[in-house]
Amino acid sequence: MKIFPRFIFAILLLGFAHVSFSQSGKAVLHKNNNVQASGLIHKLNASKDAIILKSDKKINYVYTANNTDFEDVMFRIDGTSYELPLYKLNKGRNVIVAIQSPLRIVFVVNIIEEFPKPKLVGNTLSSVVD
Predict the structure, then answer these.
(1) How far apart are CA 70 and CA 90, in angstroms?
(2) Second label for 102, Cα 20 to 30 Å away, from 2, 18, 45, 130?
(3) Cα separation of 69 and 122, whole Å?
(4) Considering only CA atoms, which of 21, 46, 34, 16 is closest in space to residue 107?
(5) Three-state SS for 127?
(6) Residue 107: which region, alpha, beta or left (left: phi > 0; alpha: psi -120 to 50)?
């Protein structure tokens, strides 16, 4: 009889561990490890809903180079840092190019689940919850 409660406890513990580790994020960033690309820091922010780009040199543009009929993303930055929200990218594989004249630094973001687009509530932005 002592085995049954331990068995149930073990199943519950494994179930909760699986749920907590399976919610690791909705996007995966594949960094560019090239030596010339080391001047550009590209990483996901803490909440994993935006890409942070930082550099010592000026970043001119950021755009997507996807082979789809969907609308591509293109931003003129002209600064040393930028935060690209992931809700602007399509679900699936997105090839992102950051231009630092004369370099073009390429990295890939896989969007596993689409991010909700924010809506304007009053004078502030808020996420749309379905």
Answers:
(1) 8
(2) 45
(3) 34
(4) 34
(5) strand
(6) beta
The type of residue at 74 is: M
Q: Where are the strands (E) in 1-130, listed by range? A: 27-30, 40-44, 50-64, 74-85, 92-100, 103-111, 118-121, 124-127
Single pTM value for the model: 0.70
**Helix, coil or strand: residue 20:** helix
* 22-36 residue pLDDT tens: 444 589 999 999 998
In the chain, where are the structural domains located? 27-117
Q: Which fold has domain 27-117?
A: Immunoglobulin-like (2.60.40)
Distance of alpha carbon 106 from alpha carbon 76, whole angstroms: 16
Q: Which of 46, 50, 127 is nearest to 89 (CA)?
A: 50
Write the pLDDT tens digit of every residue in 41-78.
999 998 888 999 999 999 999 999 887 766 678 899 99
